[in-house]
Amino acid sequence: MFVLKDIPKSRVSTLKTIVSVVLGASYSSQWYADVPRLGPLAQLIYEVPDSGESSDENDHHDHPSSESNGVPVGAIRCALDPYNPVKDGPADTRPRVYIMVIAVLAPFRGLGAGTMMLNHIVEHAKQLDAKAVYLHVRATDTDSQQWYSRRGFVETGRVPGYYRQTGGDAFIYTLDL
Ligand SMILES: CC(C)(COP(=O)(O)OP(=O)(O)OC[C@H]1O[C@@H](n2cnc3c(N)ncnc32)[C@H](O)[C@@H]1OP(=O)(O)O)[C@@H](O)C(=O)NCCC(=O)NCCS
Whose CA is nearest to atom 4 of ligand 1? Predict the structure, then answer.
């Protein structure tokens, strides 16, 4: 099963590794330094052994504590964003939650970890009375676009040349709350 946890300073390097391995991306040291302060907006997801897996209560002696606490397999990192992507839209003071990174290590994909992280962020965004959750997705990445579409997101814009380093356009995908 999967468990979500806040990212303390001591675990920022794990986030860094996941971002690098899954997305091949690098962010500034400030981007990482801000993470522990984000609370529910930045999470690591751990795979932990099901509690019913062992019938022997003393069995935990066989497991190093790092394993019983779970293995980090993915991450989500968001920002609270006052920016209104609809430039001519009416003034609106409700914030938006912007998903900057969502990533699951390849061997752990298709098991619900990504959906669990997304649902967590949507629920937190509702608690913040956010207007929407949104993100950029590569215009050529139809798999990810469909993944978001199946979870209620719709395409709300296109940003030519958004990926400056590697080239390519982005779509904005938005879930209105
Ligand atoms: C997008 C991503 C975060 C989803 O995480 P995940 O844990 O695989 O998500 P889930 O298990 O909740 O859902 C996976 C979906 O793909 C299907 N799937 C099955 N096997 C899969 C596999 N090996 N890999 C990916 N998806 C798989 C699932 O059935 C599910 O389908 P559904 O949308 O009909 O429910 C993950 O694939 C990833 O890290 N991709 C690379 C990074 C990326 O593209 N990030 C988003 C950029 S905008």
Answer: 114
Task: Indicate the residue type of 57.
Answer: E
Q: What is the mean pLDDT of residues 65-72?
A: 72
Q: Which of 109, 134, 153 to mutate to test the pocket of ligand 1 (most atoms within 8 A of CB)?
A: 109
CA pair distance 137, 141, nearest whole angstrom: 7
91 alpha carbon – ligand 1 mean position (Å): 35
Least confident of 63-72, 111-120, 127-136: 63-72
Domain extent at residue 114? 2-52+64-129
Is residue 22 included in any domain, yes or no?
yes
Whether 144 maps to a domain, the answer reads no
Total structural domains within the chain: 1
